[in-house]
Amino acid sequence: MSSQTATQPQDRKTPGSAYPHRPEPSSLIDRIAFPAFIVALLFLSFLGGAFVMLSNVFPAGKLSDAYRGGEALVAKMQQSRNPLASDFWAPERRPEEGVTIHNPAEAYPGYTLYTSGHGSEALLFSMDGLLVHSWQLPYSAIWSEESPVEKPQPDEFQYWRKAMMLPNGDLLAIFVATGDTPWGYGMVKLDRDSNVIWSYLGQTHHDLDVAADGRVYTLIHQMRNKTFDGFPQLTVPRLDDFVVVLSPDGKEEKRVSILDALVNSDYARLLDRVTWFNKHDFIHTNNIDVIDAQDAAVLPFAKEGQVLLSFRDIDTIAVLDLEQEKIVWALRGTWLGQHDPDVLPNGNILLFDNVGNFGPGGRSRVIEIDPLSAEEVWRYAGSAEQPFESNVRAAQQRLPNGNTLITESTGGRLFEVTDDGRIVWEFINPIRARHPERPDEVIVPVVSWGQRIAADGLDTDFREDLSRQEQERSVQ
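The chain above was modelled as a monomer; its predicted structure follows.
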């Protein structure tokens, strides 16, 4: 008698696969159900994510960190393709190069120092546009593993945001990079031959000043996750600014959080002016000037040793007391996105107003204000015939003869105006390139800083060396 062994049915497998073959859907409902389930799952995930972020409950912080990190990565990838495509360069506005206007009878004589988006270099030239000296150094020459910048951008994606020449020909310079956050990279002090005297690898940005005792005051920034009660708009992670004081040989002596100093002051509600577009760089400090004895004598609200700051994104200038670590005076006026406020000998403040001009000739202007009344006592703005505009960066300098040297950064131009607004000297950055993605477009590197330097304020040997170079190049 034969017997039969019962066998269980086996799933069919797709050839070459270890996974069972799923039968074809038996109806239209089966075909629709699975995609509908996936769509519903994605929609619920979206709603859940929105609830978490709007309610600021766990894991909102982690999601925000991931989003900001991804955003920074995308920006770095976009801006790292070619330095000529970065915001260190802008479309050429005029084809002229070098000195285009020079009225010797009215222009203030001296040398002009400037930094440009083309690279880590500072150039010094005569009133006639002759290059008489230069300093160069790439960031890679000072970088070390001690730097908070773990993977710096290539040297061609960096330039000197500001440089300050000392009477003996030494130079202080601030490195910044494009396509990186934070973008501040550090500071270096060079001798007149571009040899390194010292370097500081804190993430310096925008500005520096040197006190009478040789100490260097500068700005650094770093990412922080500190929150403040009563200020929910100061979300984290956040790019925060600090004032740093360096010894004459470049060693850090003091560090003060600017945001802490503002929150803990009578001016804290200025932070209600934080804008939606600043991407967690809420105040964007862009200026530091040491208040010396002369400044303190004409400013009743300030003392010697305090510092004058500028907060671009809340349209505010302020005084910080470094001992109290507190903002002790602040002012908002008719300016927007300002740069480079300077105390004048008469007690007024001169600043570059980037986008606060609403008349013809461009959005920018330079204004002199009475800080006690906020009254505007002098202004220079462009016209239809002589347009003038730099929406970012830029600077100004009141000269001893009463003229004003203006740095029109985005225009790649430096020019000097009289008290009645006449241009008596003008220089246009001669460096040119073509946009890598639009080869028909000529571009010029931004001029982020310009300064007129009187020859009689320089050490004798350096002054004589510059005069010799000027004479030699004038006959070439």
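The first helix runs from residue 28 to 55.
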